[in-house]
Write a structure and sequence with these properties.
about 425 residues; mainly alpha; about 80% helix
Length: about 425
């Protein structure tokens, strides 16, 4: 019966996805059909409703709407130009300075906003015209912007790790936050190495003035510090024990409001209602997916599908390095057609027991799976960051994809390093006493 239930569940789920039914509804419907077919209609109705509510009845999930709101406030708060000036101050004389500044700006802005789309739009919107003016190839400029925009999913604060914590049964959010730092920076640096090589090969060297004064440098740093200080407050507060990750999300909102509305004055009070409405819409989507995945988790347990998949995967080979490589390929494929939240909630319970069986910690696996699914945001057919980047650069998809190929190789190298070198994820949490 378990095998038949698993086949029915998978068939209904993918059939609904093919019919373009939203993921959350596809999850609930396939789970409901499976429960009804093998138990009863009444029981299926009761369990589906009960599990949806129970799935979102978690104190830690309060952080999700707050971090979304903080990200929207910071995205609308006019901080992109300040971060770009800071990056340019450091990288201004390096070949490909503008492209490298785009990468550094995406890393900083993405970590503050927690959104790859926001980073690609805010940073790319400023940098792409400058790169075009300096003679950069349009495809190369767009590719650098797209390739580095998703790193904010790894560098905290990010809602991806909060969702993974829920899916993995309570892995420490604070530990995950610190674990994502180095892999996120490795992703950025690998792309910057490719960008530097291409820029040097094609002579993308920006002429900069030699008379940058100490006063100008100090002004640039001073203007950028308040934006970057959000990260210091959140991470510092969590590590020092002043507040939990959930409480930190509320602090992030308060700080983002003060910075954007009162300090920079780049958001008017009249714009706040629209930002709150957008926050509510985005939160509803995430929470519905989380609730739907709770129903799916019950059905997975009922069907025994995770055990079946685990036995099947472990039956391929007992070499953990090959198994991890296979998982990476599978998750990269999943990321091409499924958003991060549902993918985390569906596949974490399936793969986490497998990786734990050969010694990988939930923390390292959390970073690995988020890394894989973040790549999915820049790959077709569902790569929303990729399509935003193409639209922003006013280029066809195939043009940007061609220029993205060297960056994909660099990102894959960073992914393999994250997968096979546990210290990249675990060293920082370890020295901070979180592991």
């Amino acid at each position: 019966m378990e095998l038949q239930a698993a086949i029915l569940l998978i068939t209904v789920f993918f059939l609904l996805l093919i019919l373009n039914v939203p993921v959350s509804y596809s999850i609930i419907a396939s789970a409901f059909v499976t429960i009804t077919a093998f138990l009863s209609f009444n029981f299926g109705t009761f369990v589906s409703a009960q599990k949806v509510i129970a799935g979102i009845d978690s104190f830690s999930l309060i952080a999700v709407p707050f971090f979304i709101l903080a990200g929207l406030l910071m995205s609308s708060g006019g901080i992109a130009r300040r971060l770009i000036n800071l990056a340019m101050l450091v990288l201004g004389r390096v070949p490909g300075a503008l492209a490298l500044t785009n990468a550094a700006g995406n890393a900083m802005f993405g970590s503050i906003s927690g959104s790859g789309i926001a980073a690609a739009t805010a940073i790319g919107g400023v940098m792409l015209p400058l790169e075009k003016e300096d003679g950069y190839d349009d495809g190369f400029a767009a590719a650098m912007n797209v390739a580095t925009a998703p790193v904010g999913q790894l560098i905290p604060p990010t809602t991806a790790f909060i969702i993974y914590s829920t899916a993995s049964g309570g892995t420490s959010v604070a530990t995950l936050f610190m674990a994502g730092w180095i892999p996120g920076l490795v992703w950025t640096v690998c792309c910057m190495v490719v960008g530097y090589y291409i820029a040097k090969k094609y002579g993308y060297v920006r002429t900069v003035e030699n008379n940058i004064t100490f006063g100008y440098a100090l002004k640039v740093i001073w203007e950028a510090i308040p934006s970057l200080f959000l990260i210091v407050i959140i991470i510092g507060g969590i590590l020092s024990g002043y507040f939990t990750p959930t409480e930190a999300s509320g602090v992030a909102v308060a700080y983002a409001f003060i910075l954007s509305v009162l300090f920079y004055r780049s958001i008017k009070l009249s714009e706040i209602p629209d930002i709150l409405v957008n926050t509510a819409i985005m939160t509803t989507v995430v929470m519905l997916i989380i609730g739907a995945s709770s129903v799916l988790s019950f059905v997975l347990s009922f069907t025994g599908l995770p055990t079946v998949i685990s036995k099947m995967v472990l039956g391929i080979t007992d070499n953990k390095y090959i198994l991890l490589f296979i998982m990476n390929i599978f998750l990269l494929i999943v990321g091409t057609f499924m958003d991060m939240a549902p993918a985390l909630l569906i596949f974490t319970p399936i793969f986490l027991p497998i990786v734990k069986s050969f010694g990988m910690t939930p923390v390292q696996f959390g970073v690995m799976i988020v890394f894989n699914l973040a790549v999915g945001t820049i790959t077709p057919p569902v790569g929303n960051v990729l399509f935003v980047g193409c639209s922003l650069a006013k280029l066809k998809l195939e043009v940007v994809l061609k220029s993205l190929m060297p960056f994909f190789i660099a990102i894959f190298v960073a992914l393999l390093l994250t997968t096979y070198v546990p210290a990249l994820s675990e060293w920082l949490p370890s020295i901070l006493g979180l592991m």
